[in-house]
Amino acid sequence: MQTENLLQQLLRKNNMKKNIKLVAATVVAMGLMASPASYAKEIVIKFSHVTTEATPKGKGAMLFKKLVDERLGGKVRVEVYPSSQLYGDKAVLKALLLNDVQLAAPSLSKFSKYTKQWALFDLPFLFKNPQSLNCFTDSPKGQALLGATERKGIKGLGYWLNGMKQISANTPLITPDNAKGLKFRIMSSDVLKAQFEAVDANPQKMAFSEVYNALATGVIDGQENTWSNIRSKKFFEVQTDTTISNHGVLEYALVTNKRFWNSLPTDIRMQLDQIISEVTAEVTQFALDAAVKDMKTVADSGKTNIHTLTDSQKQQWVAAMKPVWAQFEDQVGKDNIAAVQQCNAQN
Predict the structure, then answer these.
(1) pLDDT in the model for residue 38
(2) Alpha carbon distance 321, 284 (integer Å)
């Protein structure tokens, strides 16, 4: 009744044609205040990712669902789709922008179409260890970098750790010369392409879900990944040799559709932010624990020979790959590289 009276007053006082925008805006504003659609029915959040539920990311997704169920049951429902059940590597970000899914956690390597800055995380031998990585991502510079994709409609909600990357093939990889001519699967990253070209190898961009079969059939010779992914996807069963190289990091960005996120009621959004903060801390611990357990599982299997590099051998890899930094420092920011090096010094 109050809404009708206000509209009548506006129309009597002003010319209807001249003020139609004002009237429409008033209707919309009052409608939103009176009965927001977001409260009218349960909000569904579809979370699509490519790893198994046994990985740090998979565990994080399920923990997020569990906490949302406990705290926001009836208001928000989370549906988790692991192992590329809903979307694979290439399609998930497009689906996110179309709001066909509302959460995804691709590797930072997958965002080159949306920002070049996140290529920082692919630079070989940049991060000393997971503690150095977390030092940077928790810092003001790291948090500012999380917003790099917002102009493209993708909102970063947090960094999820997987771990340090190791390298494998069907031949021992002890020095950079051993990689010459071999075909290595990489994610869609120009930095990773340059990294393998620096040791005269042949990088092959390929979806994560295709890697096992490609290794088994010889389409590719080797790959780089964390212990968690090597174990959960059974890559060690189709690789005779695995080298503890710790040459890179695998970090995920938990992302959402910016428009969807901003449309959520403020109280719901605040509670989801808090849950994400808690889950992010747990994912870090999942990843640290998995690195130890999964390496042991792979070693105990006896199906792949595990090689530990001497300091001298590792320095050969560093010398071969580190020049890649200069190729991309303008894209990723010299100041960001310097901030990571400060974290390295502290850890």
Answers:
(1) 42
(2) 27
The two three-digit tokens of residue 185, written as one number: 């699967």
pLDDT tens digits, residue range 113-127? 999 999 999 999 999
Q: Does residue 226 contact residue 164 with C-beta atoms inside 8 Å? A: yes
How would you label 27-52 residue by residue, b for 16+ Cβ within 10 Å and e otherwise?
eeeeeeeeeeeeeeeebebbbbbbbb
d(CA 65, CA 63) in angstroms, rounded, equals 5
Q: Tens digit of pLDDT for each residue in 142-189?
A: 999 999 999 999 999 999 999 999 999 999 999 999 999 999 999 999
Gap between the Cα atoms of 347 and 128, Å rounded: 8
DSSP of 164-218, one letter per residue?
EEEEEESS---SGGGGTT-EEEE-S-HHHHHHHHTTT-EEEE--GGGHHHHHHHT
The 10 Å Cβ neighbour count of residue 324 is: 23
List, for the chain, all residue ranges whose pLDDT scores fall below the cut of 70.
Answer: 1-40
Q: What is the pLDDT of residue 40?
A: 65
- Rounded distance between C-alpha atoms, residue 126 and residue 4, angstroms: 64
Amino acid letter, 188? S
Integer distance in angstroms from the first to the last C-alpha of the chain? 65
- HEC per residue, 39-107: HHCCEEEEEECCCCCCCHHHHHHHHHHHHHHHHHCCCEEEEEECCCCCCCCCCHHHHHHCCCCCEECCE
Task: Tell me the whole-structure pTM to 2 decimals.
Answer: 0.86
Kindly report the CA angle at 253 between 249 and 257, in degrees rounded to 5?
A: 165
- Cα distance between residue 118 and residue 132, in whole Å: 16
Q: What whole-number distance in Å separates Cα of residue 184 and Cα of residue 171? A: 12
**Using CB atoms within 10 A of its CB, is residue 68 exposed (0-12), middle (13-18) or buried (19+)?**
buried
Residue 111 tokens, joined: 């965002």
Report the distance separating Cα 74 and Cα 71, nearest Å. Answer: 9
